[in-house]
Amino acid sequence: MARAIWSGSVSFGLVSIPVELYSATEDHTVHFNQFQRGTSDRIRYKRVNERTGREVPYDKIVKGHEVDSGEYVVVEPEELDDIAPGRSRTLDIEAFVDLDEIDPVFFQKTYWLGPAKAEFSRPYLLLAQAMKKTNRAGIAMFVMRGKQYLTAMKEDNGILAVHTLFFADEIRKPKDVLGVAPEGRAPRGKELDMAVSLVESMADDWRPKDYRDTYTERVTKLIKAKEKGREVVTEAEPPEATGVVDLMEALQRSVEASKKKRGKRKAG
Known about the structure:
Elements: E1 6-12, E2 15-23, E3 63-68, E4 71-75, H1 77-82, E5 90-98, E6 107-115, H2 121-134, E7 136-144, E8 147-156, E9 159-165, H3 174-177, H4 190-201, H5 214-227, H6 247-267
Parallel strand pairs: 1-5
Antiparallel strand pairs: 1-2, 2-6, 3-4, 5-7, 6-9, 7-8, 8-9
């Protein structure tokens, strides 16, 4: 049984429900230690005073924020604790918004929220069903591990899911980050019709179980192969970019290939 990473209450109106928060995801990434090439010597990181070269104990370290070139304001841990947002243990729902209005770019991480005890199931299920029926998400702020989070709470198969959200000023605008922005007149005519045809020919139901992390699988195989002294097979190079003059032909061939693939799938 997983352990709760936060406990408190969900509050909406005058209703308060004791709850516990659990991570909804887990990381399967293969993690590596670092070694000096040609040796079995581990690389370790130390907290070192750049002036003296001596290692500094963790309890002797404070945080500093650069306010000017080479000038810092030093902040003690106790000072950060004193201004920590809302020390209460409450997920206070401030509003219910249409779930479809939340742009996916705002979603950060997902957690499952459960009642702290079985006796709190009735108000918990009541809130979940009310949000399901209205297709709305509860927008709430809460504090976890010394940090304040903006969240969207929604119903998911009878369970409350809490999605941490990025704040508006954390979202980058495309024009501020794209090295090359798309330009020219919007495509239309036969090219657009063919592109739409390709999209429709590849339409399918969303089945998450059909997809898996193949890169992590390859990393695991690489490690096992090297452990046994076997030859490592490299991955094929990615395809070259499609030229503008070849675009129509590439679309046509893609549609035909997609239809054949779908035909074989139905036949099987």
